[in-house]
Design brief:
By secondary structure, the protein is an alpha/beta fold. It contains nine helices and eleven strands.
Length: 229
């Protein structure tokens, strides 16, 4: 067991969990909202000192500018609002798919993708295959071969995860989005629709939680890869 000093880096404004990768498989992720750019830089520098690969979500444009200047080796995705460092080794933690119902769901899809890539997971992207044109999903099903899980991102009525669940033999992580007209109540209608899915392999995360969807699917893929390697 590591000592307390090794497990936690006390920076005054934050106590950074330096031991999470050992306990949980992956390091602590920085949630950028509410933090100053200087605080994020300090956390990243502390993580890098310990050989931890940093990753931040919900990064604002002004924070992104600072991070890109300070860490030119980092990978910024302004659509996803993420900033990450490339993994030290090539992807080795299996494969997932990320399916979006429409192009309006792209920011959440990109957040899920960046999360999985940071975890060392290969990502197959299938975009704009909502239930208004179900043939588009069927035409892409062959691309799911070898995946351990699929993240399905949809707004409006949130029906797509149930449809996908009826075609695959692995977990479906459903992510409801706030995309939709007034009666969708900021994504609540999609959330309730997904929670009420009759597809037995569908589980649901919170509204617009692309990070959580990508992380859960990434864990499934990584654990399966470790067991079979």
């Amino acid at each position: 067991m590591h000592g307390k000093e090794e497990q936690t880096a006390c920076l005054g404004f934050a106590q950074v969990d330096m031991d999470r990768q050992r306990r949980c498989g992956f390091p602590e992720v920085v949630y950028a909202e509410g933090k100053t750019s200087e605080a994020i830089v300090a956390i990243f520098e502390k993580q890098l000192e310990r050989g931890i690969v940093p990753f931040a979500t919900r990064v604002k444009p002004e924070q992104m500018d600072v991070l890109e200047k300070r860490f030119p080796q980092g990978l910024a995705n302004r659509v996803a609002r993420t900033f990450r460092f490339p993994p030290s080794t090539p992807p080795r933690n299996g494969k997932i798919a990320i399916i979006t119902a429409g192009t309006s769901d792209l920011p959440i899809s990109e957040e899920a993708k960046e999360t999985a890539l940071w975890m060392g997971v290969e990502v197959v992207e299938i975009q704009d295959v909502g239930v208004a044109g179900p043939h588009r999903l069927v035409e892409n099903l062959s691309r799911l071969k070898g995946c351990s899980a699929v993240v399905v991102i949809a707004g409006m009525e949130g029906a797509l995860p149930s449809v996908v669940g009826g075609y695959v033999d692995f977990p479906v992580v459903a992510v409801p989005t706030s995309v939709g007209y007034g009666a969708n109540f900021g994504g609540i209608s999609a959330l309730l629709g997904m929670l009420n899915s009759c597809a037995s392999n569908v589980t649901v995360v919170n509204i617009d939680a692309g990070f959580k969807g990508g992380y859960v699917a990434g864990l499934i893929a990584a654990n399966r890869s470790r067991r079979t390697s």
